[in-house]
Design a protein that fits this description.
Layout lengths: L1 H23 L3 H11 L8 H18 L2 H17 L6 H21 L31
Helix pairs in contact: 1-2, 1-3, 2-3, 3-4, 4-5
Length: about 140
């Protein structure tokens, strides 16, 4: 049974390595597909591999333009880095920080809609509500 568990962990590690390779080759859609498939199994990864997953997932989403998801995953990577200092390489921490500053500035300045792929609930946007009735003209009583 232990051997089967080791094979499973190796597969997760292989997927993580493949996703990083795809990310580094600017094959972001391919990297995201691998990462999404790996997502349910992230608890099987070691702490440093979880941080790697969070970073790669966040930066992949960021580069594709999935800004809400990018902010989520990068915040998780940052939280894990704060909990276990040194779990991410220095250059990754710098890129993560820069991306989070940009994403957070957008949210704090313009709300979630500033992230582009945020879902806005009816009535939450700054746009006037749309109705089926035409607007009244000034001549109408």
């Amino acid at each position: 049974m232990l051997a089967w568990s080791a094979v499973g962990c190796q597969t997760y590690q292989d997927d993580l390595t493949r996703s990083q390779r795809a990310f580094e080759q600017n094959e972001h859609e391919h990297a995201l597909a691998i990462l999404r498939q790996l997502e349910p199994d992230t608890l099987h990864l070691a702490v440093n591999e979880q941080a790697q997953y969070f970073y790669l997932r966040g930066m992949t989403d960021y580069r594709i333009g999935y800004r809400v998801d990018a902010r989520h995953w990068l915040a998780l990577a940052q939280a894990l880095e704060e909990k276990v200092p040194g779990v991410l390489p220095e250059d990754w921490k710098g890129r993560m920080k820069d991306a989070l500053v940009e994403l957070n500035d957008g949210v704090y300045g313009g709300g979630l809609p500033s992230l582009g792929n945020a879902k806005v609930k009816p009535g939450d946007s700054s746009e006037p509500a749309k109705t089926d009735k035409p607007a009244k003209s000034e001549d109408e009583p």
